[in-house]
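Thread: sanity check for a docking pose with zinc ion

Original post by kr_44:
Hi all, I'm comparing my docking run against an independent structure prediction. Below are the sequence and the ligand SMILES. Could someone generate the full complex and paste the structure tokens? I mainly care about where the ligand ends up relative to the chain.
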Amino acid sequence: MILQRTLNHSIRCSGIGLHSGKKISLILHPAKENHGIIFRRSDLGIDIPARSEFVTDTRLCTTIGKDGASISTIEHLLSALSGLGVDNALIEVDAPEVPVMDGSSAPFVFLIQCAGIRSQKRAKKVLRILNKVEVTDGDKRCSLHPATGFKISYLLDYDHPLLRQRQVTIDFSQQAYTREVSRARTFGFLHEIESLQKSGLALGGSLENAVVLDQFRVLNDGGLRYDDECVRHKILDTLGDLFLAGLPIVGAFEGERTGHEMNHRLVTALLANKASWVIEELLDDQEDHTASAIETAGLSPTFR
Ligand SMILES: [Zn+2]
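Reply from moderator J.T.:
Ran it for you. Here is the predicted complex with zinc ion included:
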């Protein structure tokens, strides 16, 4: 039997917000069994569960909200928690967004590793896909299928010389989240970033926290971290958005040209179609997609 996991102890960091450009304080706390992931606006004293019914906006990033409070850009931190198999945590931020850090989830992976991960007493629960669920919108489509373990396949297809028809598949039972996905940064096009900033958005966005492309090439001095970094970032985002189902998913995701909005529609369609999934305790080590991530992170397998 696989057990639920949380952090060993609380840990904090600070960074700037992508939208506001202002400094934000972030604290991750351990939480008891079956707590799930809950965000807290420490400046307002309002808790917002990381679940799809609390999603209020999916433009540019994923935002959750409740009782007039909201938190944006939750997906990279959720991706790190999902990728490392953390089931229960309370996350405090003192602003309406999670700090963007370097635009990837690697700084959050590092933070979680520094806190350490420990096993709890109750069995880990997962949401197993039983029947295919799909959402489409023109040439955008994404779906979840029954499968052992957890896999994400994504096709990126922009009208850009570096981003045409790029497909990557990650099987998380074989490939480690930390190594294969977590370092991939968010990306944007120079003309879009300039127009967003003129409208007072993405004020914290820079070459420090995004891959920026002009019409032909990557503008960042160091180039890309992976040859297909932008596709891998889409996979990173997907992992975070799917975690809003409230539990880790056992199944396979396939996406083409999709983003946060389609991911949210897919999770909503999935949860509404109760014949398409079942919640069960995870019994088989082979289906624990975080095992390889934990080994790569240098954590003791004995805590499992
Ligand atoms: Zn992202």
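The chain has one domain: 3-303. Hope that helps with the comparison, let us know if your pose agrees.
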